[in-house]
Amino acid sequence: MTTSPIDSSRRHVLRLFAGAPMLPLASSLSAAGLLTACGGSDDDGPAFKSVSFSSTPAPDLSNPAAMATTNVASVMTVNFDDGSKVDYKLAYQPFFVTGNNVADGKGGTILAGGYVDINNQPIIDKTVPGSERQFFSDSPDGTSLLTVPNAKIDGIKGNPVFAVVQFEYTTWAQDAKTDMYGKLPSPIAVLTLDQDKSTGKLTLVKYHNVDTSKVHGLWITCGASLSPWGTHLSSEEYEPDAFADRSKNNMNDFSQNLYGNPDTANPYHYGHLPEVSVNLDGTGSIKKHFCLGRISHELIQVLGDNRTALMGDDATNSAYFIFVADKEKDLSSGTLYAAKVGGSTDFTSTASLAAPLTWVKLGKATSAEIEQLATTLKPGDILDVKSADPSDASYTKIVANGKTEWIKVKPGMEKAAAFLETHRYAALKGASMGFTKMEGTTVNLKDKVAYSALQNIQSSMVAGNAANVPGNGISVPKQLVAGGVMALNLKGGQKDTDGTAINSDWVPVDVKPLLVGKDLLGADGKTLQGDALGNTGDPATIANPDNLKYSETMRTLFIGEDSSQHVTNMLWAYNIDTKQLARIMTLPAGAESTGLHAIDEINGWTYIMSNFQHAGDWGAIHSKVKDQLDPLLKANFNGKFGADVGYLTAAPTQMRLNSD
C-alpha cells in the first residue's frame, strides 16, 4: 500500500466525521463524490463506490461488561472508485434509557416510555406498596427518523430532525412478579432532535407523547417503517382474538388500564395499522387504518409505487399479505390480498428453488367503513366458529392461531370477515396460512426485491405438525428454529386467483430463502444443544431474524435478531452484492434488537437507528451467564426495567489511499 496526500474532498469527509453519526453517503451516488448535498466535495474528487463492515466479536464471559450493554467493535470501510478507502470506527449512542426523565420542550421533564390512559393521565404501578410510580416500558421498538419541511422548534441550533418511537409493552411490573405483557396501552412518542450541521450529531431537545385517544389507544406496537411520504407507519401485533375469553387474552386488563373499565375496549379496534404524522412544532398526530386487514401487524413496507404495501404477519399460521391502495401516499382505501404458495420450496435451505406466489383477493374497502363495522358488530355477527367438527358441510375446516376450527361466514358479512377476521377468512379462501413468526419486511427498490424475516421455521411450517395445513405450499421436512430471511421478486402484470388484474407493478411473484440460521444440534440431529456459552444457534451467523431494513446507498440489508438461541442478540449487516455478512453490534444478554431503521440521507447524513428491549429476560440458554450478568444489567438499565433508544455513530480511525 502506498500513501498520497489527502485531497480536499477527503479532508472534508474527515472533518464532518469527527465525533459524528453514520456516514453522509446518499449524495455520493453521483460522480460528484461525497457530500454534494452539503456543498463540501469537489467534482474532481473520487466517487463513492461501496461500503463494507468488519465484524464485532461475539462476546463471552471473558468480558462480562460487554455482555451487559450495547457492544460495538466494528469498522465500516468506505471504498472509493480510485481504490482508496476510509475507515470509520462504529459506536452506539443512546438518546435515553426508558424510565429516565427527559426534556418536554416546555421547561419541564417527562418520563421516557411512560404509560398514559385514554385521558393522557399517568398509569400507576402499585405493585410495591409505598413505592408507587408511573409504568414505563422496557421494550422500545419501531423507530422512524425524518424531517418536516419548515419545522421551527425553540432550542434548535442546527437542523430540526424528528424520531418517532413506539413502545411495544412492559415485561414486568416493578414487583418483578406481575407479567404486564399486553396489559397496557402502547405509548408512542415524537423526539425532537437537534442535528449539528457540521458533525451530524443528534441531540434530544424535546419528547412529546402522541395523543392516541381518538384511535382507541394502541395495542402492542411492534416494528415500524418510514413511509415514502414521510410518516411513521406503526403496527398492532397479535391482534386480540375476538372469540376468546377476554380474561385470557389480556383484553380485560388492557381495557381497565386504558379506560378504567375492563369491558370498554373492543377487540375489533385493535390489530390494525396506525400512521403518525409529525407536526411543525414537534408534536404528532395519529390515525388508524382499518382496511389493511386485522392481522399480527409486525412491520409494513410500502413499495416503489407509493401504493403497494407488503406486510409482516407475526403469528403461527400467518401469511404474506399485500395491500394495494387506491391512491398514492394514501392508505385509507384499497384492496387486500393474501398469498397462495406453490411448488415445494424448502424454506430451510438457500439452495432451494423459489416458490411461486399467487394472490387471493380478500376484499376492497375504506378505513372509515371498516371502523364503522368494527364499532357496531360483534364476533358472532360475522362468523360462526366451532372448535369441534359440527358434521355440517356448510362449515369449512381451517387452522388459525395454531388451532383447528370449523367456520362459516354469516350472510352478507364477507367484507367484515375479510377485514376484521382476516386470518380466519384468508384460510377459508384458500390462502397459504402456514408461516410461523413472519417478522420484518423491507425493499430493495433498484432490484425490485423485497425481503421478509421468518423468526422461526417450525410448527405450522413443518410437515406432520398439527398446525401444518397439507397442500398449502408450506411444508418443510424438519424444523429450523433459527429461521431465515426470504427474498421476494416483485413484478407487474399479475392477476389474482379469480383472474382479475392486480393494479400494481410491485406484486411479489415468488419467495426463496436468502439467508438461513444454523441450529446447534445434539448427536440425534434433532435436539437443540447449547455451546459452551449456552447458544443453541450458531453465533457465527443469524438466528431468529426480526427487524429488517435495507439501505439503497450501501446495498446492505441490516438484520436485527429476536433470538431465543443467541445468549446475546445481534445486529448484522449483509451486503447484497458481495454476500458478506458482518456482526456490527451485540445487545445486552437477554435483550432483543429492535427499532432498526437505516436512512440514507437527512441533510447529507446517513443514520442507522437501533434500540433494544427487555435486557436480562432470562431463558434456559442463559443458565451459564445469568448470575454474573444480572447485577450488571440492573446497574446499567434502571434495575432492568429500562432500555436504550439510540443510534450508531461513526468516527474515522485511519486513511488508506491508493491500495495496491
What does this 3D model show about the protein?
The structure is a single chain. With 660 residues, this protein is mainly beta. It contains 8 helices and 37 strands. The strands form 9 sheets. It has a 9-stranded antiparallel β-sheet. A hairpin with a 6-residue loop joins β11 (188-195) and β12. The longest helix is centred in the last third of the chain and has 11 residues, at 626-636. The radius of gyration is 24 Å and the shape is globular. Residues 1-42 and 654-660 have low confidence and may be disordered.
List the helices and strands and how they pair.
Elements: H1 8-17, E1 20-21, E2 48-53, H2 64-67, E3 75-80, E4 85-97, E5 101-103, E6 109-111, E7 124-125, E8 133-134, E9 140-146, E10 159-167, E11 188-195, E12 202-209, E13 225-226, E14 232-233, H3 251-259, E15 273-278, E16 284-289, E17 297-302, E18 308-313, E19 316-318, E20 321-327, E21 330-341, E22 355-366, H4 367-376, H5 379-382, E23 383-386, E24 396-400, E25 403-409, H6 414-420, H7 422-428, E26 435-436, E27 438-444, E28 449-454, E29 484-491, E30 507-516, E31 545-551, E32 556-561, E33 570-575, E34 581-586, E35 592-602, E36 605-613, H8 626-636, E37 644-656
Antiparallel strand pairs: 1-37, 2-3, 3-4, 4-37, 5-6, 7-8, 9-10, 10-11, 11-12, 13-14, 14-15, 15-16, 17-18, 18-20, 19-26, 20-21, 21-22, 22-30, 23-25, 24-25, 27-28, 28-29, 29-30, 31-32, 32-33, 33-34, 35-36, 36-37
Helix pairs in contact: 6-7
